[in-house]
Amino acid sequence: MLVHTKHFHLGRNQFSGEIPDQLFSSNMTLKHLLLDQNQLTGKIPPSLGLVQTLEVVRLDRNSLDGSIPSTLKNLTLTSELFLSNNKFTGPMPNLAGMNALNYLDMSNNTFSSADFRQWFSTLQSLTTLVMENTQIQGEIPPTLFSLFQLQTVNLRGNKINGTLNIASNYSSQLKLIDLQNNSIDSYTVRPGLPFQIILMHNPVCYEEGSEDYCGISQTNFGYSTPQDNCLKTQCSSDQIFSPTCKCAYPYTGDLFFRAPSFSDLTNTSIYESLQKSMLSSFSPNQVPVDSVSLSNPKKNSEYYLVLHLQVFPFGQDHFNRTGIATIGFALSNQTYKPPPNFGPFFF
To answer: Which compartments does it reside in (predicted)?
Structure first.
C-alpha cells in the first residue's frame, strides 16, 4: 500500500481495466489523483472516499460506469473534481459537505433524470459548475447564483425548464451562465448585468430571438505580462523584448495546469501572482533571471489551462547551459511549486 505517496499523476497513459478497491485506504496521504484520459472501465471504488487528504481528483475521459459512490462526499478537502465524459448511470451523487470544492464537472454522463439538486447551492467555495448533458430538469434556484465565489455556470444540453430568475445578490465574480439547449420558457430580465447569459435554443428565444441572451457574443481576451514604461526599441529579428525593456533570447515553452480552481481567465491578478511566484523562485537558486513573461491564456480540449512562458536572462542576452538546465529542471521536475489555485502542472 502506497500510504506515503502524495501524487498519482497518471493521466493520458492508455491504462485499461478497473480501478482496484484495495488501492485506497484511510492511511494514505495522497493529494492528487490524476487518472484522466485513459481507458479505465468498471466502477469508482467506494474506498476512494477514505482518502480524505485528496485535493484534486480527475477521473474524466474514461469509460467508468455504474453509480458514483456516495462516499465521495467524504472528500472534504477536495477542491477540483472532474468526472465528465464517462458512462455513469443512476442518481447524481449528493456532494453536500464538500465545502472546499471549487471546480465540479460531471458532464456527459447518463444520470437518471432529476430536478435541480438543492445541494449545489450549499457548495460555498464553488467557482465553476459544469454539468452539460446530465439529464438535469426543473428550475434553477436563484440561490445558486449567489454563491460568493461563483464565476461560471455551464448547464448546456439538459432539461431545465420554467423561469430563469437571477437574484439581485448574485456573485460579483460571475462571468458566464450558459444554458443553451434546455427548455426554459421565461427569463426575468435584469438590465445591466455584468456577465454573459446564453439562452439560445430555449423556448424563451423562439419568439425573442433578437435579445442579446439569445445569441453568443464573441469575447476575445489576450493577456501578456505588461512591460515597464519602455521606450520603443527595435530588437533584432530573432530577439524578444522583455517586460523590463531588454532585447534577449528567452527560455520559452508552455505551462499546462491540469486542474486550476478558477475558470475566469480574464482576471489578470492570477497571472501576476504566478509571474511573481516564478520570478522569486528562480532568484534563490542562483539562476540569472531578469524577468518572466506569461501570455495567451486558454483552456485546451482537455480543460487544461495553457500559458505561454518566456524567462529572460539577467545581464546577458541568452542563458548559458547551466542556466537552461537549472530552469528546465525546476519546471520539468516540479521543484517549482505554483500558487495553490493553479493546481498540478507540467511543462
So the answer is: Membrane
